[in-house]
Amino acid sequence: MKDVITPQEQLDGRYLVEPYLDWVKKQNIPVHEDFGFDLLAVETSDWAWYDAKGCFNHAHGRGDFMANYLIEVLPGKKTRPVKHLYEASPFRSIANIRSSIRRGKKPRAFPSPMTGR
Fold it and tell me: Can you tell me the mean pLDDT for 41-55?
């Protein structure tokens, strides 16, 4: 029995790892891969991370920076607060909603373009 682990043995199975994809698999929501997506038609399922429905949409050839996810927030509901360690660019696909993003202690509200509230 060998007591010493060589550097190569430490790396076995760890070359070209993708921690993001490992995390995606653990989320147990649909992952769509294509060149483009109809975000109003992709399949979503319950996502515990946000306490809402969601899915991942990965564009072919995305590299490390073109991965996105969709969150479907049902009427009258909200997502649970999540702190990010990366930049996020929220986009609303349905205009008749009001959304807010909290940075620090002060939320920034985005009124609905349809109602102005």
Answer: 94
Which DSSP string do the residues of the chain spell out, in sequence order? Answer: ---PPPHHHHHTT-TT--HHHHHHHHT-S-EEEES---TTTS--EEETTTTEEEEEEEETT-TTT-EEEEEEPPTT--PPP---SS------SSSS--EEEEETTEEEEE--TTT--
Each residue of 72-81: pLDDT tens digit? 888 788 888 8
- Given phi > 0 = left and psi -120 to 50 = alpha, else beta, which region is 63? left
Q: How far apart are CA 99 and CA 115, in angstroms?
A: 13
pLDDT at residue 115 greater than cutoff 60 = no
pTM: 0.68
**Interval 62-72: pLDDT, tens:** 776 677 888 98
What are the sequence ranges of the domains in the chain? 17-110
Distance of alpha carbon 105 from alpha carbon 100, whole angstroms: 12
Q: Which residues contact 86 (CB under 8 A, 6 or more apart)?
A: none
